[in-house]
Amino acid sequence: MDRRRMLTLGGLAVGGAAALSSAVSVSAALRGDDRAAEHHAHGDSGSGGTDAQAVTPAPPVEPFSVAMPVPPVLRPTYVGATSDLYQIPVRAATVEILPGLATPVVGYNGQFVGPTIKARKGRSVALQVTNQLTKPTNVHLHGGFTPAAHDGHPMDSIAPGVTRTYAYPNLQHAATLWYHDHSHHAEAEHIYRGLHGFYLIEDDAEKALRLPSGQYDIPILLRDALIGADGSLVFDPTDGENRPTILANGKPQPYLRVAARRYRFRLLNASLHRIFRLRLDRGQMIQIGSDGGLLPAPVPVSEVKLTPGERVEVVIDFGTQPVGTRVVLENTSGPVIGFDVTSTATDDSRVPDQLIPLPALPTPTVTRDVALSFDPSKLAFTINGKTYDATRVDAQVVNGTTEIWRVTNRDTAFGIDHNFHLHLVQFRLLDRDGVPPTPGEAGWKDTVHIPPGSTVRVQATFAGFTGKYAFHCHFPEHSSFGMMAQFEVVNQTR
């Protein structure tokens, strides 16, 4: 059985034809033009997605011929004494991804990369989301420490025409988070169509470090896509490797004009399937952060690896390059971004030898085993041999306790990569196949890569909120088709 057929049957096995249809349909918007745009966004994908092999792709764009935008920062509608209110619609739109082609998408505010929300530690955010589609959606703050009712649980959706308010307390340290759709069976296509954006938490401790800031602190959402000759985003859940166009902030292999000074880049992999391995063709990157915030100390790196959902923060000093130089951020498949040094600039930023210290790890009281695998007998992606069931609690965690989760990727026969994402908490990676983490993985994380045959141990403390939360592989096509489970935090063991 080839991989394409295996994944197709796996999707059908999880929920039948109706579930798969839901997984790959993006509903029509409420108003005429938007309705047509959104219908075009998913084409005729109601029975399993468009066959990527039958599509004529758009011709490739010359690298570094398009400017990279920076996602706009969303302004609050209301600013209170201790909280801010933001309003954002989920709607269809038509945007230009490749030059000269109109591409129907669905997006937050109708933007292909949603607007960036900037929050401050200790200052709460109310995010008022209006669903202008005709089928359900929702919002998950990935990496956020949030009450269960506001986590964007896969089964907790926003009905068409309804406005829902999410409350984010922002009690955690400064970190690069992101928000995206998490409606079960639909999250993969909804993310692919454009339901993704940055959520940045800032705090005084980070500000005191004098890292590059303001216009020199740039979030970059990386992902891939298959774009047809007609401009359509082609979604085929059985052919995740056939998405050849690399996008940075929604543009193909763009350029960014920079000054000869330090920049901070917040890199997010928002792909469904692709693993990025990023390096510079000249100069060096200094890694300063991972999913959950800053590292204890900066780490010089020649390469950073990002699986879907992971974030890495790096500083690049273009001051070592003469004006007129192009510095290329490369992936294993080719160039990603061209940084064009076009001017000089003063630079009062720094990268101190020490960043944010890590606290001592508490003593764990429970160790859990989690196995990720494709089960050919069930034709399904599974966790511990089971596909997702919203009525089943797979792990019960006592509020205030610390646990070790031992997660194994058993897909050696099929050679399928997975990763592991826990909602609610940030965790620390203890070891990978018995080997301590590299410095770049030693900080707070919420998503970790697990190659076939490998085992990772992560430790987390579950304290503050009770209720049901998800854990899953964050290759969204895997979680859409069953590789997801849920834990419940309770005040005492039942």
Automatic annotation (TrEMBL):
<dbReference type="InterPro" id="IPR045087">
    <property type="entry name" value="Cu-oxidase_fam"/>
</dbReference>
<dbReference type="Pfam" id="PF07731">
    <property type="entry name" value="Cu-oxidase_2"/>
</dbReference>
<keyword id="KW-0560">Oxidoreductase</keyword>
<comment type="subunit">
    <text>Monomer.</text>
</comment>
<protein>
    <recommendedName>
        <fullName>Multicopper oxidase CueO</fullName>
        <ecNumber>1.16.3.4</ecNumber>
    </recommendedName>
</protein>
<dbReference type="Pfam" id="PF07732">
    <property type="entry name" value="Cu-oxidase_3"/>
</dbReference>
<feature type="domain" description="Plastocyanin-like">
    <location>
        <begin position="91"/>
        <end position="205"/>
    </location>
</feature>
<feature type="signal peptide">
    <location>
        <begin position="1"/>
        <end position="28"/>
    </location>
</feature>
<keyword id="KW-0732">Signal</keyword>
<keyword id="KW-0946">Virion</keyword>
<feature type="domain" description="Plastocyanin-like">
    <location>
        <begin position="377"/>
        <end position="491"/>
    </location>
</feature>
<keyword id="KW-0186">Copper</keyword>
<keyword id="KW-0479">Metal-binding</keyword>
<comment type="similarity">
    <text>Belongs to the multicopper oxidase family.</text>
</comment>
<keyword id="KW-0131">Cell cycle</keyword>
<dbReference type="InterPro" id="IPR028871">
    <property type="entry name" value="BlueCu_1_BS"/>
</dbReference>
<dbReference type="GO" id="GO:0005507">
    <property type="term" value="F:copper ion binding"/>
</dbReference>
<dbReference type="GO" id="GO:0051301">
    <property type="term" value="P:cell division"/>
</dbReference>
<dbReference type="InterPro" id="IPR011707">
    <property type="entry name" value="Cu-oxidase-like_N"/>
</dbReference>
<dbReference type="InterPro" id="IPR011706">
    <property type="entry name" value="Cu-oxidase_C"/>
</dbReference>
<feature type="compositionally biased region" description="Basic and acidic residues">
    <location>
        <begin position="34"/>
        <end position="43"/>
    </location>
</feature>
<keyword id="KW-0167">Capsid protein</keyword>
<dbReference type="InterPro" id="IPR006311">
    <property type="entry name" value="TAT_signal"/>
</dbReference>
<dbReference type="GO" id="GO:0016491">
    <property type="term" value="F:oxidoreductase activity"/>
</dbReference>
<dbReference type="InterPro" id="IPR008972">
    <property type="entry name" value="Cupredoxin"/>
</dbReference>
<keyword id="KW-0132">Cell division</keyword>
<feature type="region of interest" description="Disordered">
    <location>
        <begin position="34"/>
        <end position="67"/>
    </location>
</feature>
<dbReference type="InterPro" id="IPR002355">
    <property type="entry name" value="Cu_oxidase_Cu_BS"/>
</dbReference>
